[in-house]
Write a structure and sequence with these properties.
Largest sheet: 8 strands, mixed
CATH superfamily: Alpha/Beta hydrolase fold, catalytic domain
CATH class: Alpha Beta
Structural class: alpha/beta
Number of domains: 1
Number of strands: 8
Helix content: 25-40%
Radius of gyration: 16 Å
Length: 232
């Protein structure tokens, strides 16, 4: 499935640059993706293509489009420092507002059936529970989510299934943090936390993360995720 660039109207004026992939056939469930701090790179294109190939209309908005450095940033050395500096300049509420606008726009498109899931990677992880609490989505999914513990106040208002995935050697989400999230989710009717053992690291879902990529854990996560997406 071809990935294309689109622009979504922003509620505060202007547009939100996004990348998107649309499946063949009739209207389908939409998936809005919250990316990593590195931007809309090849890993995000891979996610878009895979989702569209499975029959889902997928869009990833650029949460850094208003920054002085809005493009893709690399993973290592000074690039990594630049990515974290950009993160520090990007208020969560601003980025979440763009996510909410993207959700609302996708719902109205003829290739979407009105159902929406949010899928977050690393930095994008907290967008899933917050969207599940505030945007009336049908599912929230997260992979090696960072800072999820800072947004657990949204959990009581979640009204849809959640599916969260971490490795057991995630430097950005230690086991005690994962346990904190798991305990918070225990109050919900349908929220699962999956832990992948054997030294599975932060970034295990994404080939662009080099040695952290773990194909076995990634494929197991994809299988569980697609099962949920196809059930909503």
């Amino acid at each position: 499935m071809a990935v294309t660039e689109i622009n979504v109207p922003a509620s505060g004026g202007g547009t939100i640059p996004c990348r998107a992939a649309t499946p063949d056939g009739g209207p389908s469930t939409g998936v809005v993706i919250a990316p990593t701090i590195f931007g809309l790179n090849d890993d995000m294109d891979m996610v878009l293509e895979r989702l569209a190939g499975e029959g889902f209309a997928a869009v990833v908005p650029n949460p850094f489009s208003r920054d002085e450095e809005p493009g893709i940033i690399g993973h290592s050395g000074e690039d990594r420092d630049r990515a974290f500096a950009r993160l520090g300049r990007t208020p969560f509420d601003q980025a979440f507002g763009d996510m909410a606008d993207t959700i609302n726009d996708l719902r109205t498109q003829p290739h979407c059936n009105g159902k929406i899931a949010v899928m977050g990677f690393c930095y994008g992880g907290p967008f899933a529970p917050v969207a599940a609490a505030k945007c009336g989505i049908q599912a929230g999914l997260s992979y090696h989510g960072s800072f999820v513990q800072d947004h657990l106040d949204a959990v009581p208002d979640v009204g849809c299934p959640l599916s969260f995935h971490w490795g057991d050697n995630d430097g950005a989400a230690p086991l005690d943090v994962i346990e904190q999230v798991k305990q918070s989710f225990s109050a919900l009717d349908d929220a699962q936390v999956f832990l992948y053992e054997g030294g599975v690291a932060h970034g295990y879902m994404l080939p662009g993360h080099g040695d952290a990529y773990n194909e076995a854990a990634a494929e197991l996560s994809w299988g569980r995720s697609l099962e949920l997406l196809k059930s909503i």
